[in-house]
Each structure stands twice: as C-alpha cells, then as structure tokens.
Write a structure and sequence with these properties.
Chain lengths: 287, 292, 383
C-alpha cells in the first residue's frame, strides 16, 4: 500500500494542495456541513413559539418512541446479518477450492449492487406480499398451504430488503481487501493443516478488521438513511423514522420535530462512528 | 473482477483428501451444502427480479392465481404515452445524472490527487471529512437543504437537484480517485519529472491516463447513485422535477404494479448495462486502497 | 473506450432530444393538482386535450403533488414562497387543493376571487362551495367533484356485510386481519375511516362537523381513541388508498374503506374483481370535494378562468366527472343529470343509493378539530 511521494520541487508551491482541495471542500461545507448544522441546531427550536428548548424532542418521543426503537432494531439486525454473510461469501471467494463454484458466486453476489434501492423496494413489495411470488412459489411446491401464507411486509421484509441491497457492497470491500493480502501466509497455514474456517477466522479476519468495520458502518448509515424502502414496504406502524420525518415535513411543515428525529438518527450514527474511531485509535491513529 | 483467481493454485492436499473414504463422504456433503447455499442465494437474488419482469407483462393478476391471469403489453403504451411524462422523467434522470458526474469528477480529480500524497498535512482529517456525508443520515440534510434552496429559488430546478446529487456522489468520487492516484504510485511520475516534464504535464500525460480506469469507475458509480437517488430529489425537486425514482414511487404507492414495474425496468437498464462495463475498471489494487 | 464513448454519446443524445421535443413556444397553462393519480390523469388524458383543442396555441401542463394534506401542503408552500419573494407573476395558473389547505390559503391571502366572473359560477350550489371545514371560501372556489368513502367488501368472503360501525367491530373481532385500512398516512380513505369512528364513538358529531370549536367537545375522544387502538390490533394496515383496493383485489383483505370513485374506476379497468360491492355504514362516513382555485397572482388569469369554466360546465361534469371517472358532480346535480342517460346516471348509485347518501354522507370535521384529531391519533393510537 503506497501513496505518492512527489520529489520536492521548487516549482511546486506549498499552497497547491490546498487549492486542489478547495472546490471539494466548498461543496461539502455548503451542501452538507451547513444544512446538517442547521438540522442539529433547529432540532432545539420550537418554531411556533419561537423559543429554544427540548420541546421538539419531547414531542418526537411522545409520538414516535416505538418507531425509534423499531428503527434501531431493524438497522442493527440488518447490519449484523450483512457482516456475517459478507464474511462468509468473501471468505469462500478467497479460500474456495472449487473453481467453478467460486466463479459462479463471484458473478452472482454483485447483482443487487447495481439495482437501485427504489427498484428493490418495489420488487420486494410484490415478492414478499401475502400473495406475492415467494408465497406462490412455495405453494406451488406444496411447501405451505394457502392459509398459512403470511405477508412478510413488516420488519422482516425491511431486513430482507436491506440485507439484499447492502450485502454486495460489504462483500466487495471485504473480498477486495482479502485479495490484496499476501497469499503466502494462507498457503503456509494450509500446508500446516489448518482448516479453511480456521484460516478465515484466525488469520484473515484480524487483518481485515478495519475494512470490516468500514463496510459495516457504511451499511449501518446507508440503511438508516433510506426513505423509499420503508415508505413502500412498511405500510403501518411501527415504521422507520425516516418516514416519520418526511411525513412531518410534508403534512405539517413541522421542521422542529423532523429535525429532532434527524438529531436522534445522527446520534445513532455517532454511536457507530464511535466504534470505528475507537478501533482506528487502537490501530495507531489511522482513521 | 479478478480477485485472487489468477493467483490461486490447486494444492495437492485436495487430491489426497478425496482419496480417503470418510473424508470423501464429508467433502461430498460439504459440496452439496455449498451448492445448495449458492442456489438459495441465486433464488434470493433472481426471485424478486423475476417477479418484477412478470409484472411488466401482466394485464391482470387476481387472487388466487399463482401467475398473471392475462398477459399483454398494454401498460407499456400507457407508460410511454406522451402525456404521461415517463420520457420526460427519463430525460431528466439522465441529464441530471450526467451533470452530476461532470460536476463530481471535476471537483474530485484535483481533490483525489491532493489526497493521494502522503505528505499532505491533515490528510487523515480530510479523508474523514469527505466520508462525513456518508456518515450521517442524508434525509436530515436533504429536508434542510430544501428549505435553504427555497430561499435561493433553487428548489424545483435541475441545478438544485444536481447539486444535491453531486454531494452524494462526491464521497465515492474523492475516495476512489484518491485510491486510483495512489495505485499509480510515484515511479511513473518521478520518471516523467526526471525526463524534464513540468508538474502539470506529468499530471496530464502520466498520472491522469494511468489513473483513468479508477476515475471512470468512480464516474460510473456516481452516475448510478444519481439515477437511483430518491430522498434528495423528493424534497428538492418534487413536484416540478420528475425523475424516474419519483415516478416509480408514485406509481407504487398508487398501487399500479404494472406501471411501477415498467418504470422500475426502465431504471434498471442503465444500471445493469454499467454492471457489465464497470468490471473492466475496478481492479483489486484500486479497491484495496479505498479507505487507507 | 469506444463502447463507453458510444454509450455516453447515446445517453446525451437521448436526453437532449427529449428536451427538444418538449420545449415549445406555446402558452403553457400550469395546473397543479393534489389528490390521487386519477385526478392528474383527469387533466392529462381528458380535460387537457379538450381545452387545447378549443384554444389552439395553448398547452396544458399538469403536475401532481400527491394525496392528503401532504400533497396540498406542497401547493401552499409553493404559493407562499412566491408571495414571500415578492414575485408579480406566479408560475401556477390553476390549483386543485383539498378543503383543509384551501381554507388555509384563503386565510393567507393566496387566492383570488373569480367565481362571479365565470359563466358556470351559478351552478355552485352545494354548502361546500361556500364553506371549507369552517372557513368561508365563497367566490374563491368551484368544486371539482364531491367524493364519498364507503366500505368495500368481497361478497364471496363476506356473506352479511355489517351495516354500522358496531356490526363492523363485531365482524372484525370474529375475523381478525381480514379488514384493512391505511391508518392516517398515505391516503384519505384511512383518515375517513378514523373520522367515521370518531363520529360514531367520540361524541358531539354535529358540533365537530359544524362548530363552534371548543376543547370541551373533544372530551369523549380519549376513550374512542383507546378503543380504536384495540381495534387496530385486529386489522391489516395497507399502504394507502390504492393499497387498500389492491389488497382487496389480491384477496389479502376482505373489507376496507375506499373512495367510491376509485372503486368504480378500478372495477372498470379490471383491477378489481367485478363482484366487489360497497356499503355505506351507519352513523356515517365522510366525503369531501376538491376545489378549483386560482392563485392571486397567477400569470394566465383569463385562461385559468376559461379552464375552470370548461371543467365545471354541465357537459364536462357529466361526461368526464361522472361517466368517465365515477365521481359525484361538483356542481348542481340537476344540471348534470339532464346531460346523461338514465342508465349512466344510475350507475353512480348502484351500491350507495341517494337515500344512503342523504343519511350517512358526512363532511370532514371543522379544521381545528381535524388537526386535533390527527395529532391525538398519532400520539395515542399509533404509539
């Protein structure tokens, strides 16, 4: 892993890197940092009364406490499943011995990566419904009776859709990192008789912890941000707080409670980021 | 994607294992399990896709029929009738996506180049800063951007939507181009410099072409992110700007599965097309450097 | 690289060509409509082409903002933003908002009085033409249609449909998860059901509908909400107006509240089995009009007035509103009835007779009561 070290040149001014970075920094500052700061700040402002305080948070909790728990649970569960499955698939891609199976798996797993989230939402809405294709196929195979068919359009449908959509990305990062590792260590371990599972767990994973954490945290945040999927799949209550935020703004122009909910989801992300930074500091200050 | 396949060599252990009989049975069971799991994964991935394709050619699908009751393409005419605005939404989506790619790449190339240099002060902080938009729920940002844009008259305009999309894409742009430039390494640049090229010339003639596969890969990702983007367009663009994801969403909530599925198929096409194309540009060494 | 370049070129070419065909030098009449997609389709497929034929050189552009308060709120925000920016000509000519938001817009001074200036103004005779949930909107609006909610049911699964809310509760207790509605979010049919429930069990229904507004009249709401919360345990939630109809179609639910017009339209399009039926249950379920209105600084005022006059003419109301889209007319029904054959007119009243309507068709609550009701539901029933 290298970066460029350019030969020092008297013709290259010191302010050049700053100038190169400036446009990108400007974009992030104006289109992200400023609105985010507005959001976090205005979470404390009651717009009807024109005062600062905790009012918005109290109302948000009063109305949507169940949704907040629900959101946290769904996102945590989805991320955990993604982690487990990504390790399994990336592990097989690296250590698998059947060349055809590895090739098939490699071709297969990345498909959801290229399918837009809205499309995934629409597909799952029809696939997982009580009379959707999944139940129909199971009924056709006589695995279940029509009366037993249930709709999965609740937290299970959400988790399934999120895992379905985010898994390839996490697997991509992990598999890429695994492939860049030195094979000689793996070969040596195998020659000494270590099983593949042991190689995966004791040799590969420790080196891949940073990549695993990055992929899990990105997945965590991505799932927490999705608006379209819960709107399309999860009809009633409880639902994810992104839907509640959109609802408050769209129906009542209630930016106060919407921002309070945004603050709460930022706090959830902050928790995830804290894990990452803790890990990074342990590794020696490299974020 | 050629992760490791080329460097993998069949070891003699496998051959010796299959010769012993209890191990042969267990490896047969293991193989069966592996095949079953792969098939299950394939069903999970392609089942919903098949469902989508079925709905695009459905005329009517009542309960308790397991397959559509009548087939036909009449909903295609309905989607593509000029008043429906599907073509306009498609045009909007593509135009916005291309503009987003242009803006993101233009801004990300110098930033990525600067970040690829080890000696850059506060390098880790900058990398983290560019990760930040991915670290917070975008919806909180989007609903406030919409309010801010109202004041500037940017709400409901293509420019406004492009700006929002460009932010989403910037993260991927900067990180991937930075990794791409880093993967180029310093030797080619040093060589060019030693031959007398100016820094700008070395950049344009050496760094840029060598890093271009990674840059093109990031451009493709940004394109897909923009075409796919929903919540930002929902707050900033609707109702004047109609994009395919918004059309898909309103068709889905209206309960018209045929129209929703046809719109979804339209949205799928560029993505799948790029899936076959991007493979060439994402190499293992570039991917491994993302995040370092 | 060649493949990618050609793909890129194709994409750019496609995008630009779409724009080339769309941008024209005609006068554009911008119509923004709330409500479900069928209301936008009404302008795009029916009203717009007729108007364009009568007025060459004019193009009608219809934009949909979605159902319920959320959709009409977008109209309010748009007009308010332009007013705050001090613009002299606003970019919207005709709006079609719901009652709640129309009232808010009249109070905020965003609409213009026009009904006296159009020839069809004399046909606006219903109480809804003058009052919108307690706000005086006389001369600001023409009703587009009158709609009604009712309970749709599948006769093969429901042999004896309930005739009142009490009977409905008993039926649902015996058949859990077979009744579905969309709660408060995603469509007004669910909202209508909740309102009907409150009229039945919350006390003082007449005061809630007509005023005056006083907190004392909400005394019985907590108990009714608690019962609704229990009731909700036994229902299936649907994604919205269309979601309920869709789940009825797919047999996932056997009964649910629907808009009568959407019900008939879906049946006509083959999206609902032909044997489905409607029942308007006692003590009543609400219905609402949507209004045609003109923003106070609209650009094409005369064209807008012509458009609304066309939309509320007896012929268009007869053939468009009633016959094609299955709404009850917004203007004087007698004027419309004479334009239709007896058969077409009676199809409107197949399951829900005029007698039923007279007894059980109710308006939505007064605006402040309505807001309180929604807030209480979110606080008490949903969580």
């Amino acid at each position: 892993m290298t970066t460029i070290t350019l030969p020092a040149s008297p013709r290259r001014p010191d302010w050049l890197p700053a100038l190169l970075l400036l446009p990108a920094l400007l974009v992030v500052a104006t289109l992200f940092v400023y609105p985010l700061a507005c959001s976090l700040l205005y979470a404390f402002r009651d717009e009807k009364l024109g005062v600062w305080g905790w009012g918005n948070f109290l109302r948000a909790w009063d109305l949507y406490a169940r949704d907040i728990y629900f959101t946290f649970g769904v996102v945590l569960l989805s991320t955990a499943l993604i982690g487990v499955l990504a390790i399994a698939i990336a592990g097989y891609l690296t250590l698998g011995e059947n060349r055809r199976a590895v090739a098939v798996l490699r071709w297969l797993y990345r498909w959801p990566l290229f399918i837009p989230v809205v499309v995934a939402g629409q597909m799952m809405r029809t696939f997982l419904a009580k009379n959707g294709l999944m139940n129909n196929a199971l009924m056709a195979l006589d695995l279940i009776e029509p009366l037993q068919a249930i709709s999965f359009l609740d937290w299970r449908g959400l988790v399934f859709t999120f895992v379905w959509k985010q898994l390839p990305f996490a697997t991509l990062l992990l598999a890429g990192a695994m492939a860049a590792l030195d094979r000689s260590m793996i070969e040596a371990a195998r020659n000494l008789g270590a099983g593949r599972l042991r190689v995966l767990w004791q040799i590969l994973m420790p080196q891949l912890r940073p990549t695993l954490l990055v992929s899990l945290i990105l997945s965590f945040v991505a799932i927490l941000s999705v608006l379209s999927v819960p709107m399309m799949i999860n009809a009633g209550s409880p639902t994810m707080i992104t839907v509640d935020m959109a609802w408050r703004v769209a129906s009542y122009s209630d930016y106060g409670v919407a921002n309070a909910l945004g603050f709460i989801s930022c706090a959830m992300c902050g928790l995830a980021a804290w894990f990452y930074l803790r890990q990074g500091l342990r590794e020696g200050g490299r974020p | 994607m050629s992760f490791g396949a080329a460097r993998f060599s069949a070891s003699p252990r496998a051959a010796s294992r299959s010769a012993a009989s209890p191990l042969a049975v267990s490896s047969f069971a293991a193989a069966a399990l592996r095949n079953a799991l792969i098939v299950l994964l394939a069903l999970c991935i392609f089942g919903p896709l098949t469902n989508l394709l079925l709905w695009t050619v459905t005329e009517a699908w009542y309960f308790p029929a397991k397959l559509p009751v009548s087939w036909g393409f009449s909903y295609w005419t309905r989607v593509f009738r000029p008043e429906a605005g599907a073509m306009l939404a498609l045009g909007n989506s593509v135009l916005i996506a291309l503009s987003t790619v242009a803006l993101s790449t233009l801004v990300a190339i110098p930033a990525g180049y600067a970040l690829a240099q080890r000696g850059l002060p506060l390098r880790s902080l900058f990398l983290l800063l560019f990760l930040l938009p991915q670290a917070f729920p975008a919806i909180a940002v989007h609903l406030n951007i919409a309010r801010i844009f109202y004041g500037f008259g940017l709400n409901g305009t293509i420019t406004g939507v492009v700006l929002v999309h460009a932010l989403q894409g910037l993260v991927f742009s900067v990180w991937i181009t930075s990794a791409a430039f880093a993967a180029v390494g310093s030797e080619p640049i040093e060589a060019a410099r030693n031959l007398g090229a100016s820094p700008l010339r070395a950049f344009c003639d050496v760094s840029l072409p060598l890093a271009s596969p990674g840059i093109i890969a990031s451009a493709i990702f940004v394109f897909l992110i923009s075409i796919d983007e929903f919540s930002g367009t929902f707050f900033v663009g609707a109702p004047e700007i109609s994009t395919l994801p918004l059309q898909l969403y309103s068709a889905a909530t209206e309960g018209n599965y045929q129209i929703a599925s046809i719109t979804a198929l339209l949205l799928l096409l560029p993505s799948i097309l790029f899936m076959f194309v991007v493979e060439r540009f994402l190499r293992a060494d570039v991917l491994a450097k993302i995040g370092t | 690289m060649k493949l990618e370049r050609s793909i890129l070129g194709l994409a750019v070419g496609a995008a630009l060509s779409v724009y080339a065909t769309v941008s024209q030098a005609d006068t554009v009449l911008t119509v923004i409509s709330g409500g479900s997609q069928n209301m936008v389709d009404y302008v795009t497929d029916y009203l717009g082409p007729i108007f364009e034929k009568q007025n060459p050189g004019v193009k009608v552009k219809a934009i949909g903002v979605g159902p319920d308060d959320a959709g009409s709120q977008k109209i309010v925000e748009k007009l308010q933003a332009q007013k705050n920016a001090g613009k002299n000509e606003w970019d919207v000519d005709v709006i079609v908002p719901n009652q709640q938001k129309t009232g808010e817009m009249v109070k905020a001074g965003l609409l213009m009085k026009y009904r006296h200036a159009i020839p069809t103004g004399k046909f606006a005779v219903s109480p809804a033409s003058k009052m919108a949930l307690g706000v005086n909107v006389d001369d600001y609006v023409m009703p587009m249609f009158q709609s009604q909610t009712a309970i749709a049911y599948n006769p093969t699964l429901v042999k004896n449909p309930p005739a009142s809310f009490d009977e409905l509760r008993q039926w649902v207790a015996k058949n859990p998860k077979a009744f579905g509605y969309n709660g408060l979010k995603g469509g007004m049919s669910g909202v209508a059901f909740v309102v009907g429930w409150m009229y039945a069990y919350g006390g003082s229904p007449d005061t809630v509908q007509q005023g005056p507004y006083a907190a004392a009249h909400e005394a019985g709401w907590d108990k009714a909400m608690a019962e609704l919360k229990q009731f909700n345990q036994q229902v299936t939630f649907t994604p919205g107006n269309a979601g309920t109809l869709d789940m009825l179609n797919r047999g996932e639910i056997a009964m649910g509240p629907v808009w009568v017009d959407m019900f008939y339209t879906w049946k006509a399009e083959g999206r609902l089995p032909p044997n489905m039926k409607l029942k308007l249950i006692a003590p009543g379920m609400p219905g609402q009009p949507y209004y045609y209105a003109i923003p106070s600084k609209a650009k094409n005022v005369e064209l807008a007035k012509k458009f609304i006059a066309l939309a509320t003419s007896p012929q268009v109301q007869a053939n468009g509103i009633v016959k094609r889209f299955n709404w009850y007319p917004g203007i004087d029904p007698n004027a419309v009835k004479s334009e239709l054959s007896g058969k077409d007119w009676n199809e409107l009243f197949t399951d829900v007779t005029p007698a039923d309507l007279a007894k059980y068709a109710k308006p939505f609550p007064l605006a402040p009561y309505f807001t309180d009701l929604r807030e209480r539901y979110e606080a008490k029933v949903q969580d």
